Amino acid sequence: MYIVVCYAVYLAISLAVTVWVARSLHRNSRVFLVEAFPGNAELANSLNRLLVLAFCLVNIGFVTLPLRITGSLNSVREATDLVCDNIGHVLLVLGLVHFLNLYVLSRFGRRGRERQAQPRSRPAAGGAWGPEGAPIGKVLD
């Protein structure tokens, strides 16, 4: 009986925290993405939604992994320990994935700022692009 109650409490808390963090990411990461893709707010919004979707899928998948626990719990203390251990793992993974998202968004923002700061090359005489205008150093980026 305790295991069913543990599953219910664990799922309720874990999914609520996952949704709360996902909504916070969606609301606050748009600024980074708009800066990373200047003049293309539609792409920034689309990427923001995709990042939140990936965040939710990964975390909900991780939340459901401990639901395969076999065995019996003999006391309320064992049930509480199990729920707290599992929620602690979920919170650690949520934090790590959140920092990974922040890192990715900061990289996008840095690239957007670099693109805005680069001067536009002018075509060489005759209207053709000369080798001096080719971004050789940025080929692999």
Describe the structure in your own words.
It is a single chain. By secondary structure, the chain is an all-alpha fold. It has one domain (2-119). The protein is built from three helices and no strands. The chain has helices spanning 2-36, 41-64, 76-117. Helix 1 runs antiparallel to helix 2 (41-64), helix 1 (2-36) runs parallel beside helix 3 and helix 2 runs antiparallel to helix 3 (76-117). The longest helix has 42 residues, at 76-117. The termini are far apart. The mean pLDDT is 77.
Structural class estimated from helices and strands: mainly alpha
**Which spans have pLDDT < 50 for at least 5 consecutive residues?**
none
The string of secondary-structure elements, in order, is HHH
Give the strand content.
Answer: under 5%
Main sheet overview: none
Rg calculated over all Cα atoms: 23 Å
Strand tally, please?
Answer: 0
The number of helical segments is: 3
Mean pLDDT comes to: 77
Q: Helical content, roughly?
A: over 70%
Shape: elongated
Note the gap between the termini: 56 Å
- Overall number of domains: 1
